[in-house]
Amino acid sequence: MKNFIAFVFLFLSFQIGYSQITFPRNGVYDDRDGIYAFKNATIHQAPGQVVKNATLVIKEGKIEAVGAGVAIPAGAVEFDLKGKHIYPSFIDIFAGYGIPEMKKNDGQGDWSIQQMVSNKKGPYSWNEALRTEFRAHENFTVDSKAAKSWIKAGFGTLSTHRKDGISRGSASLVSLANKNEHETILREITAHHYSFKKGSSTQNYPGSLMGAIALLKQTNIDSEWYKNHGHKIEKNLSLKAWDELKNQPQIFAVSDKLEALRVLKMGKETKDNFIIKGSGDEYQRLEELKKWNPSFILPLNFPKAYDVEDPYNALLVSLGDMKHWELAPSNPGMLEEAGIAFAFTTDGLKEKGDLLKQIQKAIKNGLSEETALKALTTNPATMINSADIVGTLEKGKLANFLITSDKIFAKKTKIHENWVMGEQTVLKAMDMPDLSGEYVLNYGNEKFPMKVKGATDPKIVLVKNDTTDIKVKHNYSNGLISLSFSPYEEKEETITLSGVVEDKMWSGRGTSNDGQWINWRAVYSKKLEPEKKEDKKGAGKKADKNEKKKGDSKGKIVYPFMAYGWETPPEEGTYLITNATVWTNEADGILEEADVLISNGKIKKVGKGLSAGGGTEIDGTGKHVTCGLIDEHSHIAISKGVNECTQANTAEVSIADVVNSEDINIYRQLSGGVTTSQLLHGSCNPIGGRSALIKLRWGLEPEKMKMQNAPGFIKFALGENVKKSRSSRNNRFPDSRMGVEQVYLDAFTRAREYKANVGDPTRRKDLELEIVNEILDSKRFVTCHSYVQSEINMLMKVADKFDFTINTFTHILEGYKVADKMKEHGAAGSSFSDWWAYKYEVIDAIPQNGEIMNSQGVLVGFNSDDAEMARRLNQEAAKAMMYGEISEEEAWKFVTLNPAIMLHIDDRVGSLKAGKDADVVLWSDHPLSIYAKAEITFIDGIKYFDRAEDAEMQVAIQKERARLIRKMLAAKNGGAPTQGVKGKHHHHYHCDDHEDELSH
Amino acid sequence: MKNIILIFLVTLFASNIQAQQTPGKKQSENIVVMGATAHLGNGEVIENSIIAFENGKFTLVANQSIGQGFDGYKVIQAEGKHLYPGFIAPNTQIGLKEIDAVRATRDSREIGSLNPNIRSIIAYNTDSKVTPTVRSNGVLIAQVVPQGSTIPGSSSIVQLDAWNWEDAIIKEDDAIYLNWPSMFSRDWRNHGAIKKNDKYRDEVKKLESLFSEAFAYSNKTNTKKQNLKLDAMKSLFDGNKKLYINVNFVKSITAAVLFAEKFDITPVIIGGRDSYMITDFLKKHNVSVILKNTQSLPRREDDAIDQPFKTPGVLEKAGILYGLSIGGAWEQRNLPFQAGQCIPYGLDKESAVRAITLNNAKIMGIDKMVGSIEEGKSATFFICKGDVFDMRTSKVQQAFIDGREIDLNNKQKDLYNKFKAKYEEDSKR
Fold it and tell me: A553 vs A168, A354, A540, A548, B107, CA distance in Å?
């Protein structure tokens, strides 16, 4: 028996069962029953379900029986696994195994020439990134070389798909057994996979994250329409395939925690219960994720320590990245604690063999062993509805199991064997006798003391003297041993020996350096003496221990997870600001020596001699109090693309889908007194995307930053940007201002026709036209990027024709030329103070533009369109006074009340009036002065910025960086691998950014 | 009605003529400005000042207590107003770029990476429509600088009221600009993340060989084979031309200074974003710094949110010679606010004045002529109704370059008047 299993082969293939019945045979049938019994083992049938001294019986690749006292059937090959453990083999449901890869698109094409539709020939989706028709089982081929590395890592089955595109088609459950496709494909379709990456698609749409979200929403609608009506009109295999996959598990790969939130939210709309393939930073927004009751597939590629030896280079690494290095291994444990179910994937690991090492790290950082096992077995099986065949060791399931030397997650545990569908793969022979001890080795005329250290995976050295050991390479199997070593450093000499191990005596023949045959033997002398921990390694371990002794020295999670994030978010309070100059923006005008009372998130009272009513008093003597600034045109706090540049009308996309709560500029702008911002789509297209109206509630998740029940806006744009004037070539309509008018006329005409067909059951719901109809119905307001008078005039005429009003012209640098017409139409102007000469259409821009429009009765505001300028909008308002003739109060309204009116939120913000939101700023000086600093900024009565606290935070940030740098240096000195310093690229979006954000 | 239209047309016509700002005439009479708060540019301030100038030079800078008569002088009463030396804008593209996005109007970049021989001055357009909008905010002197490659070329210093580029010159070919190679590059496969630049050493090596060869060339007396690029660098080594190195990252600043010193050059650091971290080093090496755009965002997420506002105060305190600048052409009108922005963040007002007048003049080597209101220096100054650093109060009312009163009108004011007049007419109807 012993001899039988000790025979080492990596891939043993038995003829089990009656496979490939339809195939002709060449030779004599050799189909065996493959009955094996594994006795005396500790069997981990399922996570948390352990049977000691148990027996596992398998037959024809499936489990026949398992448990204590199971009778061993006659004819079974028996294995005695005393002291060993049996586990179900692992499952990875985010694999790409056996699927041909697509050639990657490097995304560096000429942005000016657009690919409008898919390059894929045939009746498929118009969009090349929707590859829903792809079927893993139709493309899968066994790859035995790759299978080997999976089996080595402990896997038995994989759900595999092609990692290419936004819709990636279906995945299949496949076995890693050494059989052909007919038998290894276990389930043809296990899931529909998605991502936000276009992969090999070279098509321009979508070029932004919001575009991808819109595309998914529309396609979901389209597949339903196709099923019911569309198939009678056209053939579309992608839409057909989409519907086929609708009831399958939907797996979505994301690149950060906010994307996870976005996908979960989208799922509510598309009625999909997405399983998120996460990014490892879920702990940074755990509370928010938890609310969706999601399940996750988690990667284990925890970041390496950064090489921060050079303090200047270390500047490149942000605090957030450093903190993530420290906390990433805690991610699985934290998800467990939050009660979120997850599976593990090796995706992202350079070596699959690191799987257990990484899980051990996670266990050290709070993950329970039971949950870890679930994440490798039952959870993935359940997620793809395959728990009936894999995941646990139960009768009828596949005979996929591991034999291990000890508990699977213990540090020194070896996986001896991995059985897949009854096929044995030996990874580390079980029969290795304990050879450890001290020996004397004789060969030729030489003699060395020899030490064999370790029982299961021994290391052998020759002791030359007190300080020098010679390493001996060895190979043991089935009683045979071979050794090779170079005894003298100075000589190029290698001795190779081979022989047998009999009891305590090894002996045989070998060759010396000159090719002469020699005899050798090694004789056991005594047990190994326990070694003294040596200096270097010992020191490292000591340091390790010291680190542990200090207890949990990890940093706290902050929100957002970066510098200036909150450990605990600030809370609403009652505040009384006393004795200040109060700019009411109401009929009261500017009040001297007045008080402002804030409570319950609202302005309670403005006046003199108010009582704090137990709230906090803030002395405003010599200071000014105003409402918060409102930026009508901002591009901060947006993830992956401010423009969906690719079509003339992209009303279907929305910035609200991609609000980024983790942008440092939110905090920076609070320090400039900004409290509300309209996050606008860029100006790439005549009809751009919808905007998001947020309050700068730093630290909260995107959904909570949005102003609830705010009126909807959409961005329009005219002129140079929409006709792509900066590129030398353009193939997208329009190419002139003449064409721009036609885009509008066409869109509005189509939208009206669409609306007229409302009762037609065969009508395809079109998200883009629905939004355009909202505009025509005056349910959604337009803010239009515009410069020159001709185009401004044109758009007002078009709007008049369709009987709606252009709410706001933004930029509007030639507004002063048509102020009277704007007044008549009812359009507001949201302008810059002094920008000009940066492109041709602004050569007639003047800094008195605001003043003239204002004097003609147009509602005027100044906006930033720029992350830097936004934090000194008060100064920009003052420039209206500097260049034109306008009163202080009027100028101040340019950045407060007037934008509030433009945005239809003046019932809530824009002035200091009892009952309005407590968005309040305390200024050190006259608020229109360059010398004024916002000292405190409140939103909804919550103090989101306090300059005194900011100073403390700056010190704390440096302290936390120093701690993490120390820790990373210690890790490096302790031998941990490091990565070079890297910095995030901070993209401050402007109107005309057109980078493709989804091609990498 | 006809008459009204006629009058309207005449006004229009008149304002159109004004749109071409004619350079001011040479000072013909002696002038004295009485009663202004004079910010001298050297850190001093005189309340109730008397400032007199003749033949384009200041002849008296004093307190009004002197109280002497100025017979034959033209008197400008400036009580309650502020008077400043003309602001000096280093590192600009004034006159080289008219409209940023229109290629035909840009003359600021040349092909090739090492172009010390390229001279900005010959492309300087004195009739740019941008310039009058800049000087009407008090900026009267500018350095005109080529942009782009590693060595984009040589700059020149001009005054902003001239008939042609020769007429405009204060100092021709005053400096060579060097854009120091970046130690970091962008990783486009990883969303443009920032990583180490593998080519950095090679790029520095190229500069090293250029400078060593230029140095060797400068010592040759008999050059058979003339090299225009090396010729242009000659005066770097005898101190007649300055070397401005555009560099921001702390480690790169250090590397750039050590590089220049190898060739006995004391460089001027342009940009200098991280200079506040190494003030001891800069002082020891006697390096001056021209900061760019204090109204900017911190480079790093973890930086103090107001770091760019604080940096000038730190340099001032450390005793480093520094100046302020703002990039570009039309943006120069906002130079005063780059100084004003720092005042609540640790820089006192007179130091802020000095940072864009005398300090810049010293760094640029023109402080004997301009940069402060001192007897004997060029009468290049302006009068502002209020504090020029604060948009709330700034209204520049009169300006002089070399004693010549300049036209503070500009294209934008003309358009303003044109349309104001239109609406006034409309309202009468």
Answer: 43, 26, 18, 8, 58
Q: Which two tokens stand for residue A78?
A: 């028996």
Residues of A in contact with B333 (CB under 8 A): 834
Is there a single domain that holds both residue A892 and residue A930?
no
Number of domains in chain A: 4
Place domain B87-370 in its CATH homologous superfamily. Answer: Metal-dependent hydrolases (3.20.20.140)
Strands (E) located in A778-832: 780-786, 808-811, 828-831
Chain CA centroid to CA A545, Å: 33
A contacts of B128 (beta carbons < 8 Å): none
Specify if A756 maps to a domain.
yes
What's CA A673's distance to the chain center, in Å?
A: 32
Q: Is residue A946 part of a domain?
A: no
Which residue in the set A856, A884, A931 is minimally distant from B423, CB to CB?
Answer: A856
For residues B302-306, give the mean pLDDT: 97
Domain range annotation of chain B = 20-83, 87-370
A714 lies in which domain range?
A: 629-908
Distance, in Å, from the CA atom of A508 to the CA atom of A520, rounded to the nearest integer, reads: 6
Which of A868, A833, A721 has its CA nearest to residue B101? A721
Give the pair of three-digit tokens for residue A135.
Answer: 């079927």
> Is the Cβ–Cβ distance between A369 and A411 less than 8 Å?
no
Helices (H) and strands (E) in chain B, counts: 12, 20
Q: Is B213 exposed, middle or buried (0-12, 13-18, 19+ CB in 10 A)?
A: middle
Secondary structure (3-state) at A92:
strand
The predicted model scores a pTM of 0.93
Within 8 A of B190 by CB-CB distance, chain A residues are 1000
CB contact set of A351 (below 8 Å; sequence gap of 6+) = none
Q: Which of A311-315, A387-391, A533-537, B39-43 has the lowest mean pLDDT?
A: A533-537
Work out the average pLDDT over B89-118: 96
* pLDDT for the residue numbered B2: 47
CA-closest candidate to residue B243, choices B260, B259, B230, B258: B260
| Two structure tokens written together for A88 | 């179900």
Contact criterion met (CB < 8 Å) for A867 and B297:
yes
A709 domain-assigned: yes
Using CB atoms within 10 Å of the CB of residue A65, give its burial: 0 to 12 exposed, 13 to 18 middle, 19+ buried: middle
Q: Do A370 and A495 belong together in one domain?
A: no
Q: Number of CB pairs < 8 Å for A and B?
A: 159
Residues on chain B touching A872 (C-beta within 8 angstroms) = 295, 341
Give me B37's structure tokens. 């708060």
Comparing B75 with A33, which gets the higher pLDDT?
A: B75
The closest of B229, B235, B277 to B253, measured between CA atoms, is B277
Last residue of a domain, one of A889, A908, A927: A908
Residues A464 and A575 placed together within one structural domain of the fold:
no
CATH, residue A161: 3.20.20.140
Q: Kind and range of the H or E element at A798?
A: helix A789-801
What whole-number distance in Å separates Cα of residue A154 and Cα of residue A42?
18
pLDDT confidence tier of residue A106, bands split at 50, 70 and 90: low
Q: Please report where in the chains the tokens 């490939």 appear, as a residue.
A: A20
CB < 8 Å from B in window 545-604 of A: 562-564
How do beta strands A185-195 and A250-253 pair? parallel
- Each residue of A723-773: pLDDT tens digit? 988 887 899 999 999 999 999 999 999 999 999 999 998 999 999 999 999
Residues B20-83: name the CATH superfamily.
Urease, subunit C, domain 1 (2.30.40.10)
Instruction: Tell me B412's DSSP state.
Output: H
Label the pairing between strands A49-59 and A616-619: unpaired
- The answer to whether the CB of A938 falls within 8 A of the CB of A921 is yes
Residues A446 and A575 in one domain: no
Q: Please report the ipTM that was assigned to this predicted complex.
A: 0.95
Do A612 and A749 sit in the same domain of this protein? Answer: no
